[in-house]
Amino acid sequence: MLKKGKKVATLRMGIKNYKKGETVKIIAGGEEIGIAKIIDVRHLQWNEIRRKDVLMEGLRRKKDLKKELKEIYGKFGKNRVFTQIIFQLIGDEDGGGKV
């Protein structure tokens, strides 16, 4: 989903200190996928997450996103704060060229 551009955002539980414009490594399943530039960072509660946010995660339904997040973080309530990191892939795992 990352390499195909279907996943352009990720949620991290709690308030994280990522900055717009920052360049970061993208790691999935313990494997480095590439390099990304952070386009935007938002802090929102679970109950504020909308369909567009779910779609940016590469998923179609909010309940699928909740299931995925519960596997990572365990149970959480509707007021739980997440950091949404919106990004654009800018390089492959070697740091060169577009993915």
Walkthrough of the structure:
There is one protein chain. The chain is globular. The chain has a four-stranded antiparallel sheet, with no helix packed on it. The model has no long low-confidence stretch (mean pLDDT 89). It is 18% helix and 38% strand. It has helices at 51-56, 62-73, and strands spanning 9-13, 23-28, 31-45, 81-92. With 99 residues, the chain is an alpha+beta fold. The protein has one domain: Roll (Sulfate adenylyltransferase), CATH 3.10.400. The longest helix has 12 residues, at 62-73. It is built from two helices and four strands, in the order βββααβ.
Ranges where pLDDT stays below 50 over 5 or more residues in a row are none
Q: If you consult CATH, what is the topology?
A: Sulfate adenylyltransferase
Rg over C-alpha atoms, rounded to the nearest angstrom:
13 Å
Q: What is the string of helix and strand elements?
A: EEEHHE
Number of helices: 2
Across the major sheet, the strand order is: 1-4-3-2
Strand content: 35-45%
Shape: globular
- The overall pLDDT, averaged over residues, is 89
Measured distance between first and last alpha carbons: 12 Å
Using DSSP, what is the number of strands?
4
Total of domains: 1
**CATH H-level name... which superfamily?**
Sulfate adenylyltransferase
Give the topology.
Elements: E1 9-13, E2 23-28, E3 31-45, H1 51-56, H2 62-73, E4 81-92
Antiparallel strand pairs: 1-4, 2-3, 3-4
